[in-house]
Specification:
Number of strands of chain A: 13
Structural class of chain A: alpha/beta
Helix content of chain B: 25-40%
Oligomer: heterodimer
Distance between the termini of chain A: 60 Å
Structural class of chain B: alpha/beta
Strand order of the largest sheet of chain B: 7-11-6-1-4-5-12
Largest sheet of chain A: 9 strands, mixed
Mean pLDDT of chain B: 96
Low-confidence stretches of chain B: none
Distance between the termini of chain B: 62 Å
Shape of chain A: globular
Strand content of chain B: 25-35%
Radius of gyration of chain A: 22 Å
Bound molecules: flavin-adenine dinucleotide, adenosine monophosphate
Chain lengths: ~260, ~325
């Protein structure tokens, strides 16, 4: 079985974030890291591959400036190979343009199962994986909290408003996983060393037979027109608990007539 | 070209349109003279009254999906309507599980991008501007489409207030999905509904939420107890949902529920941006956290710098003593 895992490489969310004054989108410069949301997808892909045996886990990512550090992290976790699409033309691409690009790249890996995260940490549109499925003509099951593969189909516990649904579909298919589905492994030293020599194919938009006008700001057909500070909440009262903290809460509840 | 026609994706749960559906219909009728709803399932005739009441003159009914996940068939039906020449200017979709699936599929079918995480919408002449919270809501970005209509917006819950317009029941038009082949192959085999007592998390007057600061799963019992004493609902940060302490239906935030109760009490929650977006709109916020620098205090009306294991049990005792 060929498993493809989509991994987004993003600026470290722990670092201060900034907006580009020109485009008013997040600055994606400097070193990028593996989106934590995708660490779950990588782990899920590896576990499903281990169970079936003889499977290939291919990572697919689109990122500016030939950025590979996030991919190397996922390769160090155990993925077999990676495809990176990087091109000046893709800067400022929205979810739909990104899906158009990665659909072409993923077709090359002849996938049986494509895994992505339900939403990324920096973009959180949550639409990319379904757009990808539609472009590839495949079924999709989003918000998976449990995934099993066998008999040419995938069976998923999908989160719902009220609990979860058991959903099933034939392979090939796209599945999006939520955080917490599995416990992502830490790359071992051996894994990190091995990752350095694993195949990493780099492609441009032209390599994929796409036109530059389908991606980037032109393809995205949307723009941020301005960014302003939100109304701030008036500063509250902060008190140290000296054993009487609960009394402040009671008084607050009384004021609101909740007790 | 002004905004003449808006379609709202209407989701139905427990026999009634969801609150986000009614919020979107209310907003749509303030933006456009013609509003229609698109829905699916077997209950359309019985919800047409409410949909009309909130502003939909008509409703397109995709009908029974025969167990299929809604993403592919509902998007297929909408794309077929558009293909037949019935073009809305704007399509509003709730930011729900199925809403996002439908938006994604539809965007490919009609080759139109999607703007997601919308928390506000305004009509500006021939344009629609959408508002978005950035950095946990500290900043507001305004966005717009630059291409052809229809424009697809995916809107977060509680971005607008639902108000009845007193309209007549919406007229129902069948709009079945065309044959979609493999993309429509995901089928629901069984549904599992978690037991819930007390008010719904996103409708409760009071929400008491616990986070990793509780230390262990069993300590969540005090969150439940405090919520019950205040006739409220118990919520959670994602950290403890991921850890398996409480079911996902408790999660408040970016990927969970948006709540705007009269009072939100955060216990042992740091206040990450993804948590803040789900509760920052609460009318009053109390935070209990042992770290004075925790970001949750920046949105708190009352902050108690202290140990949840000390403050919360005393609070519960005091509330019980009052009876
Ligand atoms: C794409 C994406 C989506 C996300 N969606 C959500 C979402 O929907 N909802 C959500 O909540 N998070 C979400 N997150 C996760 C979010 O970033 C945080 O990781 C999470 O909210 C942290 O949960 P927490 O506050 O319980 O834990 P922590 O950040 O670990 O905070 C624990 C807090 O408890 C305090 N504490 C410790 N011990 C005590 C004690 N004895 N008494 C009092 N206080 C104590 C600490 O000072 C600390 O502030 C999302 C993240 C991503 C990337
Ligand atoms: N540029 C990208 N490269 C690889 N995977 C991506 C990319 N963008 C989105 N994805 C995948 O799609 C998921 C949802 O992304 P988003 O639509 O940004 O919320 C991500 O968590 C990734 O798994």
């Amino acid at each position: 079985m060929n498993v493809v895992v989509c991994v987004k490489q993003i600026p470290d969310p722990a670092a201060p974030q900034a907006l580009d004054p020109e485009t008013r989108t997040l600055v994606r410069q400097g070193k990028l890291i593996l989106d934590d949301s995708d660490a779950y997808g990588v782990e899920m892909g590896l576990q499903l591959a281990d169970q079936a045996g003889g499977d290939v886990v291919t990572l697919v990512s689109m990122a500016p400036n030939g950025e590979t550090s996030g991919l190397r992290t996922a390769l160090a976790m155990g993925a077999d190979k990676a495809i990176l699409v990087s091109d000046d033309a893709i800067k400022g691409s929205d979810a739909l343009s990104t899906a158009k690009v990665l659909a072409k790249a993923i077709e090359r890996a002849e996938p049986d199962l494509i895994i992505a995260a339900t939403e990324s940490t920096d973009g959180y549109t949550g639409t990319f994986p379904v757009q990808l499925a539609e472009l590839l003509g495949l079924p999709s099951i989003t918000f998976a909290k449990k995934v099993a593969v066998g008999d040419g189909k995938v069976v998923v516990d999908r989160q719902t408003e009220a609990g979860y649904d058991e959903v099933e579909c034939p392979l090939p298919a796209v599945v999006t996983v939520t955080a917490g589905v599995v416990e992502p492994r830490y790359p071992s030293f051996k894994g990190i060393m091995a990752a350095k020599s694993k195949p990493l194919e780099q492609l441009t938009v032209a390599d994929l037979g796409l036109d530059a006008s389908q991606v980037g700001p032109v393809g995205s057909r949307q723009e941020v027109t301005d960014v302003t500070a939100a109304d701030e909440r008036a500063a509250g009262e902060i008190v140290e608990d000296e054993g009487d903290g609960f009394e402040y809460v009671i008084r607050f509840l009384e004021q609101l007539k909740l007790v | 070209m002004s905004i003449e026609k808006i379609w709202v994706l209407a989701e139905v749960a427990d026999g009634a349109p969801t609150s986000t559906t009614l919020e979107l219909l209310t907003q749509a009728r303030s933006m456009s003279p013609t509003v229609a709803a698109v829905t699916w399932g077997t209950e359309t005739p019985s919800v047409a009254g409410t949909l009309g009441d909130f502003g939909a003159a008509s409703v397109y009914d995709v009908g029974d999906l025969d167990g299929a996940l809604p993403g592919a068939p509902v998007a297929g039906a909408i794309a077929a309507l558009i293909g037949s020449g019935d073009r809305p200017d704007v399509i509003l979709i709730p930011a729900s599980y199925d809403g996002r699936d439908i938006a994604g599929r539809l965007s490919v079918k009609i080759d139109s991008p999607v703007i997601t995480n919308v928390v506000g919408l305004t009509v500006d002449g021939d344009e629609v501007r959408s508002q978005h919270g950035l950095f946990g809501g500290a900043q507001v970005a305004t966005a717009r489409f630059t291409g052809e209509r229809p424009w697809i917006f995916v809107v977060r819950a509680k971005s607008f207030t639902a108000e009845s317009a007193g309209g007549a029941a919406a007229t129902v038009t069948a709009a079945p999905a065309p044959d979609l082949g493999a993309s429509n192959a995901a089928k629901v085999k069984a549904r599992h509904v978690e037991e819930r007592t007390g008010p719904k998390l996103d409708e409760a007057e009071v929400v008491v939420s616990g986070g990793r600061g509780l230390g262990a799963a069993e300590n969540y019992a005090m969150i439940d107890e405090l919520a019950k004493l205040l006739h409220g609902a118990a919520g959670a940060s994602r950290a403890i949902v991921d850890a398996g302490w409480v079911p996902y239906s408790h999660q408040v935030g970016q990927t969970g529920k948006t709540v705007k109760p009269t009072l939100y009490i955060a216990c042992g929650i740091s206040g990450a941006t993804q948590h803040l977006v789900g509760m920052k709109g609460s009318k009053n916020i109390i935070a209990i956290n042992k770290d004075r620098d925790a970001p949750i205090f920046s949105v708190a009306d009352l902050g108690i710098v202290g140990d949840v294991h000390k403050v919360v049990p005393k609070l519960i005792e005091a509330l019980k003593a009052r009876g």
